[in-house]
Amino acid sequence: MSRFRLVLDPTACDGHGVCAELLPEGIALDDWGFPIIAAGIADDHLPHARRAVSACPALALRMVRTDRHGGP
Amino acid sequence: MTRTAAVPTRPAARRRPTPTETARLLPASGGPTYREHLDRVGPLPAAGPGLIQEVLESGLRGRGGAGFPTGRKMVAVRGRRGPAVVVANGTEGEPLSAKDRVLLARNPHLVLDGLVAVGAALRGDRIIIAVERARQDTVAALRHALVERPDHGPVIELVQTPSRYIAGQETALVRWINGGEARPVFGNRIYERGVAGRPTLVDNVETLAHVGLIARFGAGWFRLIGPPAEPGSMLVTVTGGVDRPGVYEVPIGSSLTQLLGQVGARRVQALLVGGYFGTWVGGERIAAVPLSAEGLATVGSRPGCGVIVALPDDVCAWAEVATVAEFYSAHSAGQCGPCVFGLEDIARAVRGVLAGDPEAEAAARHWTAMVKGRGACHLPDGAAGFVESALDVFGGEIADHRLGRCQRPHHGYLPSPAPGDWR
Ligand SMILES: Cc1cc2nc3c(=O)[nH]c(=O)nc-3n(C[C@H](O)[C@H](O)[C@H](O)COP(=O)(O)O)c2cc1C
Ligand code: SF4
Ligand code: SF4
After folding, report:
1. Taking 50 as the threshold, does the pLDDT of residue A70 lie above it?
2. What is the ipTM of this complex?
3. pLDDT tens, per residue, chain B with 423 residues
4. Which of B61, B75, B85, B89 to mutate to test the pocket of ligand 1 (most atoms within 8 A of CB)?
5. Closest CA–CA distance from residue B75 to any residue of chain A (Å)
């Protein structure tokens, strides 16, 4: 079980796709270039996920713990 | 609570509701005035926190579309710090729905009673009723009702909303009341921080009218009709190819076939259940299905906001479906990529089906799957569910279009009202 997952605010995201480049294991892009987020992040990929969060120019990504109440 | 003093012990006053009557919300007699309302159901007892338990026990579920238990929503707001705000949602953005405005025209005080009672139960310091600005007849009726009410009651604010499908979505409504645009807000837990940053409860106006009765007659009375899991009556708007379209009040769990007989439905090809946010049910599957969440789940549908459109078998289904797909695309709030682009592509794919394009069905399925769960609100899910059910139910007609064999005319049972301004 992964302890973290990414939450995307679809109203903030403008489809830059930077996140998918930094975390291809957890983020795919749809037909229109908007990210599709995987259910959880494997521990090995956490550093990449953090990088994706901070690289998003729209501040649309957030990382939340799945073992605590946090996500929307 | 007034539970022990519920209806059975009252003298059988002529115009008071009796436990067996199903005309709970739409009175069989009498007008909309405060006096006539009091004659029908008597005064609203002083409500307190006990009402929450009563609503929980009543099993009342929201009538705005999602069918969430109303008592549990009250509990969620009560558990928060600070004075609450209660909003009656009478925006009724579903293009064919008329139940909320018929209710507000015929029995406004029952809705306002429910609003006042919930406000008191949650110790709310603001109570608000919201209706669509374009419906000035409803606005006028409500203004009239508000001045009729006794002076010692709480102040009820009347808010008018823009003509947008999405304006009735609760986070959009809260944003509008707060002075912003009527567009949804992502991840906004209004029960924590809603109107003016306060814990906020948004309930559909029909839901609140039921609360207005539960506060008087109790949970036991409420449960006298309808299945145990979904008690009570519900308002339905029946339209399409029927002789007597209109708003009806029926016990939940009653027979769809009987309802269709009552309204004079003609040669039904399929039913659209739940309005544009709902799903198609093939004509041959209707017979066994009761009008309840449990019954409709067996055919992949749900009551939603209670709109039922009977589509006759002599009109082109895909022309109707295409109109609604365009409606969805036009009514996107333009905030989320998959909604903006996805609903446009879905509408194009459905036009393709109509035009007989052999690739269109697969394209429609591809895009409906892609948009689901990807918006800040459920608009894309509504569009996807509507179109997927059409693909399931009108499969034979897809082939007719591909082979250029569809001779049926476009009737226009499903309109596509243009979106109004955001402000
Ligand atoms: C696109 C969209 C449109 C909606 N429009 C309405 C509406 O017109 N009226 C309404 O009561 N609820 C509407 N809702 C549902 C509200 O968000 C909310 O769930 C409802 O008002 C809660 O009331 P209830 O619990 O009594 O059903 C809409 C939801 C969505 C996603
Ligand atoms: S980097 Fe940010 S804005 Fe760009 S696609 Fe990813 S989430 Fe969206
Ligand atoms: S999903 Fe569509 S309608 Fe809902 S907030 Fe996003 S853009 Fe607006």
Report:
1. no
2. 0.91
3. 333 334 444 444 444 555 456 799 998 888 999 999 999 999 999 988 899 999 999 999 999 999 999 999 999 999 898 899 999 999 999 999 999 999 999 999 999 999 999 999 999 999 999 999 999 999 999 999 999 998 888 999 999 999 999 999 999 999 999 999 999 999 879 999 999 999 999 999 999 999 999 999 999 999 999 999 999 999 999 999 999 999 999 999 999 999 999 999 989 999 999 999 999 999 888 888 999 999 999 999 999 999 999 999 999 999 999 999 999 999 999 999 999 999 999 999 999 999 999 999 999 999 999 999 999 999 999 999 999 999 999 999 999 999 988 889 899 999 999 888 777
4. B89
5. 18
Q: What is the pLDDT of residue B421?
A: 79
Q: Where do the domains of chain A lie, and which CATH numbers do they carry?
A: 4-65 (3.30.70.20)
Please name the residues in contact with B284: beta carbons below 8 A apart, sequence gap of 6 or more. Answer: none
User: Does ligand 3 come within 6 angstroms of the Cβ of B185?
Assistant: no
Query: Using the beta-carbon criterion (under 8 Å), do A32 and B185 form an inter-chain contact?
Result: no
Domains identified in chain B and CATH numbers: 2-222 (3.40.50.11540), 233-312 (3.10.20.600), 317-402 (1.20.1440.230)
DSSP symbol at B233? E
B185, B186, B338 member nearest A34 (Cβ)? B338
Instruction: Point out the ligand nearest to the CA of residue A56.
Output: 2
Q: Is A49 a pocket residue for ligand 2 (Cβ < 6 Å)? A: no
Q: What stretches of B134-232 adopt beta strand conformation (E)?
A: 156-161, 200-204
Ligand 3, atom nearest to A10 Cα: 6
Closest CA in chain A for residue B189: A72
How far, in Å, CA of B199 to CA of B64, rounded?
19
Measured CA to CA, the distance from residue B289 to residue B298 in angstroms comes to 8
A18 CA distance to ligand 2 middle (Å) = 6
| Pair type for strands B268-273 and B246-251 | unpaired
CA A35 – ligand 2 centroid, Å: 7
Residue nearest to atom 8 of ligand 2 (CA): A13
Nearest to A10 among B188, B336, B345 (CB): B336
Alpha-carbon radius of gyration of chain B: 22
Spatial separation of the C-alpha atoms in residues B414 and B276, rounded to whole Å: 9
